[in-house]
Amino acid sequence: MSLIAPADSDYVLRDFDLKGYDIRRLQAEGIIPFDPDVIGYADPKPGLARKGYSAVYHSRANKRFKKFFAPGYETYHKIVKSSVRRNPDSPALALRKYDFQTKTSAPEYEAITYAEMDEKKRALGLGLLFLLQNNPFKRSGEIEAHAKIDSHVAEYPSYNTDKMSFVVTLFAQNRAEWVLTDIMCASYSLTNTALYDTLGPGTSLYILSLTESPVVIALGIHVKLLINLKKQSPKELASFICLVSMDPLAEVFGAEELKKLVQEAKSVGIMLYDMDQVCEVGRIFPHDELPPKPETVYTISFTSGTTGSKPKGVVLTQANCAAGVAFLLAQVPRLDEFRDFCFLPLAHIFQRHCTANSLMVGAHIGFPQLGGSPLTLVEDLKIFKPTYMSNVPRVFTKFEAAIKNATINSDSALAKRLFTRFINTKMERQATADNEVGSLWLYDHVLAPKLKKALGFDNMKWTVTGLAPISPLTVKFLKAALNIGFSQGYGLTETFAGISFSIPYEKKPGTCGAVGITTEICLRDLPSLGYSVDADFPAGELLIRGAQNFSHYYKNDEETAKAIKDGWFHSGDVARIDPATGRYYIIDRVKNFFKLAQGEYVTPEKVENNYLSSNSILTQAFAHGESLQDYLVGVLGVDEAKTRDFLIKNCRVPASALIAPEAVLEQINKIDNKTILLEEINKNVQGLFGYEKLHNIYLEYEPLRLERDVITPTVKIKRPIAAKFFEKQIKEMYKQGRITGTKTKL
């Protein structure tokens, strides 16, 4: 009998563990992932189209969306426990140990096994519950979250989306202890949420106050910040009574300072521990786990507001997580070895989605060094050597620039000629058909490995990008130059991150792939923006329903009602569907538009995405228009190396004047030079009316930075704030007027 469940089942497989299968055997026998010629397509459901809406599209792999991978895999807790049973001695979570005295990371990664991870998870959960239940600052008669601590063991079986536990808050960069805490919460039916550095104290205070979280588990370096936060806002943070450091407190602070810090914490009503202390307590008081049900709330993931408004808490269940894992198992390419590098922030659901899947398959998961950043990423990758990784476009564009400088833009004429020939040939072959690897024996076995080694990509087989648009030209180049599969995904916090990603070797990169097996999509007409579901390539607002969809926004009925109608989540993204394949493109945002003086409406994301996808010299784009002006201006991020080359080749600026990065920026912002650049990039954009093109620009290397508060941590532009930040430059551009000869078309 086939392991594949019937078409009308909620499950992908009939069973899993009972057959003695593990993930590798399922892959070896071709059960998962599904055939790219099937999973790479979506079909319209007959007879379900409504007036003003497109047909409903579902994965070609199934007629109705699936909810779970197999019986017994309905929660994150069950997924992790299953992997522990199947992979007890395999490496699970790997890190470079940090020396707080020398402030250096160990030269190699050390891993704990799945069995060790499970033991520590249990100890952490039991210790935390015991210490909270016996916390001297607990006021159960006055504070609801404290009463929930007392009732948790008795009440957890009745939890659902309307009734959840007290909230555990995490506040740390990516590290093994983050994942350990996350799976601990899942195993003890505890709902969690996350803070992150870029939020700032105001938003952190808002989240802690809104959730009434009694406990924060954080980096050692955040301990003082959190104590001070309660000291400044004792009323709002009355529920906050326990602080656990992921790092050994004595190593972070030293004995004398720690003694004062413990007393300072007590003075504001906080008991301070480190994770080792909590685990030791848990080992003294053993108890069974408190496993969740599918409807138990797994996490409240706060989305970043793009208008400066307060973030919304997206309520996601254990079932949402299980569905997300089922989706990935059906599509993630087969790998001989599972080594995942966990780089994107775990505070966002995209990386948690990827990590949950990695734990399901028994992967060896590596984490950045303490204090790691994009600048130290390659150092970590060279040591850990992952086989797959998720990352964001800006990291991949930096890789692209570095590789081009070493290959097709090399100072060596021989290297330049050789790499240009091989990479172009490989790109041409990969563009002939879906799933075409474009094999070139000499390049794949001699030249590409050298490039991969320089990035720590020695074993890399596949990467996926998300969170922001990426140029198809970047995908084409990296896929060929590094001889790896490259997918672009789509998803939102409200859909437990990814609901689709393109096949790794897509003939024409740029799509988000076809919708996956756990979700269905359709489009809503947007006539005021010029998008119609009746067009040859239907376009409109992307609506999503399925097993990964969130239930509601935390304590925000008004926003929930706006977002969910008739079971469909209204994403706010504008998509275009290719009816031949069912694959879709994200082309715009519904609400992001402004009216120019001549009455034309412009949607800036459409403009920005077009410029970024058509011009590899650009790394960022912020399009701006005003009701009293009849043309657009733009703040653009440019690649330093490509800009230097452009100035030399197109503007006749001598190389000797472009040695310093600041000199390159100064030259490209000169009106004559930026006019030449603007005319060039305007030639490359397709599908824009004249009034949608930029007519003056201001350039920096990375104008849209988190520290400027002009983008969210998920790289969405905060338009009102960005307009205010660049007010001086915008005024100067409008004062200069149009610098191109193109007249606005009405």
From TrEMBL:
GO cellular component, as recorded: endoplasmic reticulum; membrane
Please provide, alphabetically and separated by semicolons, the GO molecular function terms listed in this UniProt record. ATP binding; long-chain fatty acid-CoA ligase activity
Gene3D superfamilies recorded: N-terminal domain of ligase-like
Domain of life the protein comes from = Eukaryota
Alphabetical keyword list:
ATP-binding, Nucleotide-binding
Protein name as it appears in the record: AMP-dependent synthetase/ligase domain-containing protein
One Pfam family name from the record?
AMP-binding
Q: Which residues form the AMP-dependent synthetase/ligase domain?
A: 167-554
